[in-house]
Amino acid sequence: MTLVIVLLCIVGLVLLISVCKVNAYLAFLAISLLAGVLLGMPLANIAKSIEKGIGDTLGSLVLILSLGAMLGKLLAETGAAQNLATALMRAFGPRYIQWAMVVTGFIIGIPLYYGIGFVLMVPLIFSIVYRYKLPAIYLGLPMLSALSVTHGFLPPHPSPTALVVQFGANMGLTLLYGLAVAVPAIIIAGPLFSQTLKGLVSEPLEVFAPAPAAETRVPGTANSFFTALFPVLLLMLAALYPVLAPAGAPGQAVVALLGQPSVVMLLAVAYATYSLGWRTGRSMPQIMAIYAEAVKDISLILLIIGASGALKQVLTDSGASTEIAGLLQHVALPPLVLGWLMAAIIRACVGSATVAGLTTAGLIAPLLLQTHTNPNLMVLAVGAGSLMFSHVNDAGFWMFKEYFNLSVKDTLRSWSVMEALVSVTGLAGVILLNQFLPF
Question: What percent of the chain has pLDDT above 70?
Answer without folding.
Answer: 88
